[in-house]
Each structure stands twice: as structure tokens, then as C-alpha cells.
Amino acid sequence: MQALVIQGEIGSKILTLRAQQVMLDRDLAKLYQVETRRLNEQVKRNQDRFPSDFMFQLNSDELENWKSQFATSNKEIMGLRKAPYAFTEEGIYMLATVLRSPVATDTSINIIRTFKKLREFSKHYNTLAKQIMAVERKSDKEYKELKKALDELIASSEVADAKVMGFIK
After folding, report:
1. C-alpha Rg value of the chain to the nearest Å
2. If residue 16 lies in a helix (H) or strand (E), which one and from where to where?
3. What is the pLDDT of residues 90-111, one digit of tens each?
4. In this predicted model, what pLDDT tens digit does every residue of 108-136 receive, in sequence order?
5. Degrees (nearest 5) of the Cα angle 84, 7, 83?
6. Beta carbons within 10 angstroms of residue 98's beta carbon
7. DSSP H or E stretch at residue 146
């Protein structure tokens, strides 16, 4: 049960930015039980381990969009002096190698498991979406065929009625 709670908490912190699933430095710091500045210090000391596809800093538009999700945009209250860093799954794994503690190791394992579950869910979701689209296409085709048959039936019935009434010979 505890693992599900942790994975639920982690899952709620995963964002989609630049078409990638990422977690922000401040959320990771809380999970790793370190200060955000300490986490970022370790990243800066080990920059060679964090290429741009592992980590990036939010640009001004992304930052404004993220801040708009909060009731306030006051940087002092939110504790922001600069834009947060976003870490991809690979970057999060790399964090575990620079933050050497039992908490960091356990947290990284749970984060990686959460990302794995999200990928599995995504596969099932995509499969289901494809099946729904196929049913809709099939239903749309069957609907068109049924409508055509009904229109033909109505037209032929109108012709028969007209013949009975003597309008058509």
C-alpha cells in the first residue's frame, strides 16, 4: 500500500513539457528530502552527467504557464529566484548517482517504477483509443449503409404509394 501512495504522489508531480514527461527540481528535492539548491548544486558539480535530453531549464513561457496553475504568481512566496530545472526520466536516474543516500536510492527506484507504469498505461490507452476509432469508423460506415438502404426503401415505398394512388403508371 505504501508503494502505491508513493507512486501516486510521484505521478502527480510528473508534467509534460516539450513533449517529454519530466519532474521539476523542487518536487524532486522534496522527494529526495534535500533542499532544491543542494540538488541543483550537485547537478552543477556533475554537469557532464546531465546533457540537454536529461535536463533543461524552463523558458519564460513554460514558467508563466506553470505559475498560472497556482493562486499566486509572487516569486518570493513561491520561493523562485530563477526558472526551475526539469528532469527527464534519464535525468532523474542520473540524480540518483550524484545524490548518494538511502533516501535518494529508494526515491529513484519509486520514480523509475512510476514512469514505467505510466508507459504501460499509455500503451493500453493508445490501444483502446485505436479500438474505439475502429469501432467509430465501422459504425459510421454501417450507419451510412443503413441510411442509404432506408432512403431507398422510403423512395421505393413512395413510388409504390404513388402507383396505388394512381399518380404513376
Report:
1. 28
2. strand 15-17
3. 898 888 888 877 777 777 788 8
4. 788 888 888 877 877 777 777 777 777 77
5. 5
6. 15
7. helix 102-164
Do the Cβ atoms of 95 and 28 come closer than 8 Å?
yes
Which amino acid, one-letter code, is at 1?
A: M
Q: Give the C-alpha separation, 58 to 67, whole Å.
A: 11
pLDDT of residue 137 exceeding 80, the answer is: no
Give the pairing of strands 85-87 and 20-24. Answer: antiparallel
Per the prediction, the chain carries an average pLDDT of 78
Higher pLDDT, 58 or 154: 58
Write phi, then psi, for 62 (nearest 5 degrees).
-65, -40
Q: Which helix H or strand E contains 121, and what residues bound it?
A: helix 102-164
Domain boundaries, the chain: 2-120
Q: Helix, strand, or coil here: 68?
A: coil
d(CA 109, CA 115): 10
